[in-house]
Design a protein that fits this description.
By secondary structure, this protein is mainly α. The chain folds into two domains: 215 residues, no CATH class; 209 residues, no CATH class. Helix content is 85%, strand content 0%. It is built from 15 helices and no strands. Helix 1 packs parallel to helix 7, helix 11 packs antiparallel against helix 15 and helix 14 runs antiparallel to helix 15. It starts with a helix and ends with a helix.
Length: 454
Amino acid sequence: MAPLSHHLRATLTLGLPLIGGMVAQAAIQLTDTVMVGWYGVIELAAVALASAYFHTIMIVGLGFGLAVTPLVAAAATNGDRTQVRRVTRMGLWIALIFSAAVMPLFWFSGAILLALGQEAEIARIGQDYLRIAGWAIAPAVLLGVFRGYLSALEHTRIVLWATLAGVVLNAGLNWVLIFGNLGFPELGVRGAAIASVGTQALICAILAAYSGLQRELRADTLFLRFWRPDREAMGEVFRLGWPISLTLLSETGLFIATNIMMGWIGPNELAAHGIAIQIASLTFMVHIGLSQAATVRVGRARGGADPLALRRASIAALIWSGAMVVATMTAFLALPELLIGAFLDPADPLRPVIIGIGVGLLAVAALFQLADAAQVMALGLLRGVQDTRVPMIYAVVSYWGVGVPAAYVFGFVLGWGGQGIWLGLVVGLALAGATMMTRFWRGQARVELRAMAG
């Protein structure tokens, strides 16, 4: 039996490219924000709103790509390449069906944004952006399936390199199309939308080409007779994927709710909140990458009916995540002014005010890191043993039944302001992490271990 040190190395080897890919994906979003912000304040507000709208829809579709990962990992461990092909191909089918179904939400987004109480000009610009950016939904969701397939087979470096290529293309297209450089017309937010479509299409095309042409993967023949439906495999992916989608949606909704609440307090608090969230999100990418690696490692142990490997793979992933939590908590508590100040113009008269607010938020974010890491790692472990429905219920109750009300009570009823809202986030995420970890170690994982031993 492989010792724990082997699993630590294997998890890090698998996880580092996934972490790099997630950080690169965050860099694409950061580039969009910065470059549209250079173009205009109103345009920045509209694109920020439209991007959140796009992300909320996209996150639902990505659940099916995450479902492909444990299914492929288990099948590959058993040497069943036919099943690998079946579930991956039907994951791609679901991604295409989903993308077609949600396109009207982008085309008629202006009316939806107005109905949500947004200003007419913001809604108009947002619709201009979304009518073009909506065409990125198909490649974005499809690449999620390819990423799940490749990660499960431990071909993760291509995911990193494809995403880095997307970072470069996105920055270049934004510079050319938003501002009208190199003789191109100045397109503003429409240029940013075109850049988003091009970026997602490039990453998807690279992963698709690699999946179809790489020597070890050609035998899976993912695209041979692609048009043939497979109802059994589609049902398997859908049953595992829809709870993941709703779990992701409920977590995204929690953060959207806190954004709205911070806006109720004031613009300075909202600005500090936005900076602190950017910092926390960047460190969170590490835990997402480790969570995806945990899904693969645990899924392979489950497929191979190896209870000791399942236990040690789980512990290894949690050790790496815990080490990252300690590092980020130390940075948030020791260097808050430096971290917040890096996002602000030294000449801005509001800089001291926003830094003061942000320092308080990062102090809460130290706790936030521990809670957020716990819940995302628990989700990754549970997906590895193909347990998604009960965690979905835990997520909805924790985020919306507890987290959002707690944020409101702490922030407004008790008058704790922005720090109170963030404490509500901590409570919701901590409850999700505790219940899901208990579910894994005392529930589903124990069932799996007993079944393997039997």
